[in-house]
Amino acid sequence: MRILFITATRLGDAVISTGLLNYLIHAHPDARFTIACGPVAAGLFQRMPHLDRVVVVSKRSYDLHWFDLWKQCVGTRWDLIVDLRGSAISLLLRTRARRIMRGGRRSGPRIAHVGEVLSLSPPPMPVVWTGEEDRKIAQAILGDADVIAFGPTANWEGKVWPSRNFVELWSRLEKIFPEKKLAVFYGPGETERALAAPVLAIPGAIDAGGRFSLAETAAMLQRCSFFVGNDSGLMHLAAAAGTPTLGLFGPSRSSEYAPSGPCTDWIAAPGPEGAASISGLTPDRVVDRIVSMNQRYGKRVLLPFS
User: Fold this and answer.
1) From CA 17, how far away is CA 236, in angstroms rounded?
2) 107: domain CATH number?
3) What is the pTM of this model?
4) Max CA pair span of the chain
5) Cβ(301)–Cβ(238) under 8 Å?
6) Which of the residues in the chain have pLDDT under 70?
7) What is the pLDDT of residues 44-63, one digit of tens each?
8) Residues 210 and 147 occupy one common structural domain
9) d(CA 134, CA 28)
């Protein structure tokens, strides 16, 4: 059985789709999978079971990237195509069955929209796939420390909680939990590193960003006792890794993109959704929510999570 799974360009949306993909892997244990996704998300599927190949869809003018994908897939007779991009491509390929996610702004969590593609309610939770080599890297970087992870970056400025707030947050947390260490996660590239730089300057902070694959990053997040960070792909990756996760929201839509996982929560800046300034979210409120999560989840939060 051959399944083509067309998923997102952005990392966060791709992570959200992994629950549906994991459902298909278990529902069709003899299937082989081809994943079509954007360049940023490609490494997410590096370790998934039953993978034939990842087709990287790089955006081109006049939507020619869809023609590129068609050329790479037209020679195969598919048994199932799952298209989370709502593209016409799935209508132009031979397949026994197709499931297409329709686009447009909709109310409710994004993960529920993804689950509706296969009529799954509740929707399957996102997952990560890692290998032994990734876990060895995670051990080498984080050691056996009890680590709190910060994710101080995002893909646009409106989502970025000011770095001075992350610095203040750590000054509060290290007094409450003096045995913990800090690890700072961020994506590749100079822009991401510049956003993370003031937090990386905290004495003793572990640099866990920029140079690692997504599988290695997921393995490191699995070793962390807690993650707090902006609405970003890293936030969704932390939640999928099973790490207790607190997402920080400003003008982005928490109703659609709140983190999904076994121990997750979110907090939003005051003001209307879609217009609130994240700078209005105070470190005091974030500390209070972390303490509340600790009380709610008990030993699963702020202790090594496995």
Assistant:
1) 11
2) 3.40.50.2000
3) 0.94
4) 61
5) no
6) 104-106, 297-306
7) 999 999 999 999 999 889 78
8) yes
9) 26
